[in-house]
Design a protein that fits this description.
Helix content: over 70%
Radius of gyration: 20 Å
Largest sheet: none
Number of helices: 9
Shape: elongated
Structural class: mainly alpha
Number of domains: 3
Order of helices and strands: HHHHHHHHH
Amino acid sequence: MPQPDCQQIVRAKAQQLLAQREHGTQEIIKKLQQKHPDCIDVIAQVVTALHESDWLNERRYIEAFIRKEVALGHGPKHIHAALRQKNADAALVLQCMQESDVDWQALAIVVRVKKFGQTLPKTPADLAKQMRFLSYRGFDGDMVRNALKAVSD
């Protein structure tokens, strides 16, 4: 049986979490269920109310996540995978990625130069190392190849 003030406790915790940073719907539900397992029946109502009052906004969460990951030097494949793992709406993720004004090719070049410097790889081992690094960061094959051909200013 839920506590009499379960609704207030869960709402306060959700607002505290959302005041710290944006959260996705599934992420906030999971955190609330872990923190308040005796109030599980109230969590859905609180989350719905947070959506209606715009405290919880999936689009805003995805856009903030993309900005954070771009600042860390992660490519589009990495970002898609991370958001898929967080159960974000796939169609909304794709839309936000397309609407973002990120030049993925330029980002790949910046990431490569930051890690390896201006000089292009001279040996096959260096080339393979840089290719693996950029692929691991979430850039696709074309972006990796172009970044390895370009010398940034």
